[in-house]
Amino acid sequence: MLRTIILFLFLVLFFLIGFPVNLILTAMDKKNPGIKTKVSEKLVKNGFRCCLFIAGAKITVKGVENVPRDQAVLFVSNHRSYFDILVSYVSSPIPLGFVAKKEMEHIPGLSTWMKNIRCLFLDRENIKEGLKTILVGVEQLKSGYSVYICPEGTRNHKEEMLPFKEGSTKMAEKAKVPIIPVALTNTDALFELNSHFSLKPTHVTIEFGEPIHIDQLQKEDRKFLGAYLQTTIHSMLMKEKSKE
User: Fold this and answer.
1) What distance in Å separates the CA atoms of residue 182 and residue 184, rounded to the nearest whole number?
2) Strand pairing partners for 172?
3) How many angstroms separate the CA atoms of 87 and 206, rounded?
4) What is the chain's alpha carbon radius of gyration, rounded to the nearest angstrom?
5) pLDDT at residue 242 is higher than 80
6) pLDDT digits (tens, 9 = 90+) for 97-136
């Protein structure tokens, strides 16, 4: 419980300090466009590192060499915990923005930082608005800024993943960028699987798979790309589990 309290206090302090910092960054960005994003990336990454340290997360990163440094990619991963985002962000060798549910756009403090690092807010109930978000993501990928999405749509603690939403891969198809499958293991043991809102020091693993080029896949795999990616990530997870 002590770790949880310390983490909560750290987040409160981070968001309080964030208000004046964002005002300054906004003013600076008018004279030097892009500075707000670059500075925010560093501040958010360091903030996430502090959160993971407080939580007691020991992270093993695998396959980082599979992530291209010269182009944007669509990261696609399983989703087990709130900490998935933190682990993925600090482990990625390139900047990225996350696709989050629309409701998070209305959380004071948090939404500002998310917008600063180019996160996208997806309305799952409104098809028209959802399509607009997908198109923004396509343009973001084309501009060279990567996007990270969890096609299960919600956190899942079971061994079997929830079905991947087929529409989640449209950004990569339209922007013609590679997909990096990401397998996260044991992140929910940090918090969600524990009782009384407690944090538990845990060893977690994140693995970046080899790039998947959609145009090189078989016709059937391209047609059901979500299912293909789910199978790929499931194989990565099972391989990691067999080593335990």
Assistant:
1) 7
2) none
3) 8
4) 18
5) no
6) 999 999 999 898 899 999 999 999 998 888 888 889 999 9
C-alpha dihedral, 70 to 74 to 77 to 83, nearest 10°: 70
pLDDT band at 8; cut points 50, 70, 90 = very high
Q: What is the pTM of this model?
A: 0.93
**Count of alpha carbons within 13 Å of 136, Cβ hemisphere only?**
15
Q: Backbone phi, then psi, for 147, in 5-degree steps?
A: -130, 145
- Nearest alpha carbon to residue 86 among 145, 13, 11: 11
Give residue-wise pLDDT tens across range 28-41. 999 999 999 999 99
